[in-house]
Amino acid sequence: MASSNQHGLRIGWIGAGRMGFELAARLLRAGCDVSVWNRTRSKAEPLSELGATIVDSPADLAGCDIVFTMVAGPDDFKAVTIEDGGVLAAEGVAPRVLVDSSTVSAEASEAVRAHAAERGTGVLAAPVSGNPKVVKAGRLTVVASGPEDAFEIARPYLELFGEGVTYVGEGDSARLVKLCHNLMLGIVAQTLAEITVLAEKGGVERSRFLEFLNASVMGSTFTRYKSPALVNLDFTPTFTPVLLRKDFDLGIEAAEELGVQLPLAERCRELVQHLIDEGFVDTDFAAMIEVQARAAGMELTPENVPVPTGLEPASEPPVPSA
Fold this sequence. Notes:
Elements: E1 10-14, H1 18-29, E2 33-37, H2 41-44, E3 53-54, E4 66-69, H3 74-81, E5 97-100, H4 106-119, E6 122-125, E7 128-129, H5 132-136, E8 140-144, H6 148-158, E9 162-167, H7 173-201, H8 206-215, H9 221-232, H10 241-258, H11 263-277, H12 288-295
Parallel strand pairs: 1-2, 1-4, 2-3, 4-5, 5-6, 8-9
Antiparallel strand pairs: 7-8
């Protein structure tokens, strides 16, 4: 069990889904004092074995110095912050900094930011790049925006998440950066599914094709860690098609507001919607390969071979100073 209050600042955590759980666990293993709320309490309770205090309401976290939120969408974000029982709705007390790592709309972000300003709370948008496997390997990256003084308070803890934190200035620009990132994520995943099916229909085993691709200049951390799913057809979810479509919707909406054309992203959004229509809702978005195979008149089977992920565990994160 991690020691309590080792670093002075009290940390609140809202949202113990797949990503939220792993990130909260990472803070706890570094010796941070973390209190956690999750809508389904049982999902958060295993964190108590690492030293977390499990609370009954987001409002119970109002006395923390920094509160992190990682929830599914804009309605959830407003519910856990500014609505009844929210961390910013408690009487007489509010956190110094609210760090949101969700992907939410500009409207929801502005509503929370305005309410937080009245309470004297600095709000950082701090979306992340990666999935639970990436977190465990210490390879997660963070982009943050908001008041610089709030960022300096939160930065030592954001740095515990993984490999790096990029500060992109005041305001909400980090959310746009993350949407741009996830548009590319979806497009690359769709391309990877298409070319892998093409290679297999031409007689090349998926594992051999991806081995070549990943060793080439076109290989990346992303193509390597998605390869096991494509080869062995293991679609245990790290990021679902429904969540990916939400990000495409938000990204395309932002592009329309800024007057930027996204023809490739718009087509990919249609393909993600088709994936959902085909019943791939609670699976990983790597299931794109199944839809591409069906369109090519193929029935895929797992190759059942070991495939490197490229995610070698990093050393334990450094301990932040008080």
